[in-house]
Amino acid sequence: MAAKKDLENGLEAIRQALEVLRDYYGSKESLIQGDLGSYMQQPAAPAKHEKSAGAGGAIISMLEVAESDFANNLAEEESEEAAAQEEYDKVTQENKVTKMTKEQDAKYKTKEFTALDKEVAELTADREGAQTELDAVLEYYEKIKDRCVAKPDPYEERKKRREAEIAGLKEALSILEGQAFLQRRTSLRHVRRTH
Q: Using CA atoms, how far apart are residues 5 and 1, in angstroms rounded to an integer?
């Protein structure tokens, strides 16, 4: 903006200088000021004064080249400024879109992770309830299994029972033999009496 203002001021000054020089070298009375009142009059031109058209033309040509350069520089500055403004507006718009997109993403991701946290909490509670039920079922199964599943007795246990059974049978046999002996005796006595 400062460069543009400097170029505009310089261009305006060169144009004014060119106007003055063209008026001076173009007409004889061009430097006479307008009517400022009767008390101010232009002094008479010196007698030996002549306009130097060649020198004036060179100065005017140089100023025209300078005017052209200033106008080109001003046009370049304005086009660069317009391009920079356009780029700025474009980047600003892209940044607004990006910011809005990221804000929406953050909003939805926050909503999503909140929902997922809630779901995790519910699933954890469900899992804990299922685990409690499973533990109770497994405990009950172990109790039932002890009652229902026949376990083979260890060899020593079976041997002791068998020996006890054999001892009981032997004792029963001896008792039975003893009773049989007594019955024979009684039967023999009974047979002797009857004879």
A: 6
Please, which residues have CB within 8 angstroms of residue 56's CB and are 6 or more apart in sequence? 21, 24, 25
Q: Is the pTM of this model over 0.70?
A: no
Residue type (1 letter), 91: V
Cα separation, 77 vs 17, in Å, equals: 23
Decide if 21 contacts 59 (C-beta within 8 A). yes
* Token duo for residue 38: 């009767």
Give the closest residue to 169 by CA, choosing from 158, 155, 180, 161. 161
Which letter, b or e, does each residue of 59-72 get, where b requires 16 or more Cβ atoms within 10 Å of its Cβ?
A: ebeebeebbeebee
User: Distance between CA 7 and CA 73 in Å, rounded?
Assistant: 7
pLDDT per residue, tens digit, the chain (195 aa), is 787 788 888 888 888 888 888 888 775 444 444 444 444 555 555 555 555 556 667 788 888 888 888 888 888 888 988 999 999 999 999 999 999 999 999 999 999 999 999 999 999 999 999 999 999 999 998 888 877 777 777 888 889 999 999 999 999 888 888 777 777 666 666 656 665
